[in-house]
Amino acid sequence: MTFSRYLLVVALATIAAIGAIAWARPSVFTSPVVVVGLGRHFSESQPGSFYAVRVAPILEERCVGCHGPKLQRARLRMDSLGDVWLGGKSGRVVVAGDPRASELYTRLLLPKSDRRAMPAGTKPPLPADEIRVIELWIASGASGHTRVEEIANAPPPPPPPVTIETPASDSVAKMRAPLEVQVGVLGERYPGSIAWVSRASGDLAVDVKRLGTSFGDADLARFEPLARAITRLDLSGTAVTDAAPLAMFERLEHVRLNDTNTGDAVLDALATLRALESVTLIGTRAHTEQIADLRRKGVKVYDARG
């Protein structure tokens, strides 16, 4: 092969490659901003960035079904920051700093009767807060590095979805069966003070603060038959003292002792509980040294000093 033919083959191969890229991502050629910013925009977004925390979840839920790995309508993918910046068949969809020039934003504002409105078809429009999040992200530069706290006045993130577990009644009944008699007995003696931690649980929460000083150490001792099932205990405002038999609650995770005549001896007993996660001690005689010991074990302690 002559040198001239070699150059011709290379040129044809280069043209073919460029043509393939242009077909797949025409915005690479229609957007100088993207070409100049390849290193910045094609990189993965940073964990904790506004894009990763607030924008990407919206795109994942609302857009990726039609513009993702399995389907790319208008040759547009939106499952990564680089793909968003590359755009699709009609060019780029994001203009950094200018939401009104960005189709990613403007199409969300169109009425459903407009064929260009997004999301397309029968999918519901985005809530106003989600549109605002996208607008703020684009206006701030549409970066994958801008931190959440750097974008002011963003709507708060939605609360996590509430899921109600429907337990298998047979398995729950089996867990609770050995406790039912004692739960009934103590429930009659201390009405409204015992509850299951959740619908699917065999663990118990005991809250006797409404009984006040009529509930003391001897009353707490009556809960021994249920001790291994009790994971939450609220003794606030009761007459329990340092003699309270707290060590018997081997699986106790959370305990409240606010405004009780308890001190360091009770903390020594609590220090033996391996499952303990938190203790509230406002208005007790507990000292700093014992509280520090609990904190060193990883227990969250809430007292008058924080």
Describe the overall structure.
The chain has 306 residues and is α/β, with parallel strands linked by helices. The chain folds into 2 domains: 12-150, no CATH class; 169-302, Ribonuclease Inhibitor (Leucine-rich repeat, LRR (right-handed beta-alpha superhelix), Alpha-Beta Horseshoe). It is 36% helix and 7% strand. Strands 1-2-3-4-5-6 form a 6-stranded mixed beta sheet, covered by helices on one side. Helix 5 crosses helix 8 (128-139). The chain is elongated and about 100 Å long. Mean pLDDT is 84; it is low at 26-43.
List its salient traits.
306 residues, alpha/beta, Leucine-rich repeat, LRR (right-handed beta-alpha superhelix), six-stranded mixed β-sheet, elongated
> Spatial order of the strands in the main sheet?
1-2-3-4-5-6
Helix and strand succession? HHHHHHHHHHEEHEEHEHE
Largest sheet: 6 strands, mixed
**Got a strand count?**
6
Helix content: 25-40%
What separation lies between the terminal Cα atoms? 83 Å
User: Low-confidence parts lasting 5 or more residues at pLDDT below 50?
Assistant: 26-43
General shape = elongated
| Rg estimate, integer Å | 31 Å
Estimate the strand proportion: 5-15%
pLDDT averaged over residues: 84
Overall number of domains: 2
- Count of helical stretches: 13
SSE-based structural type: alpha/beta
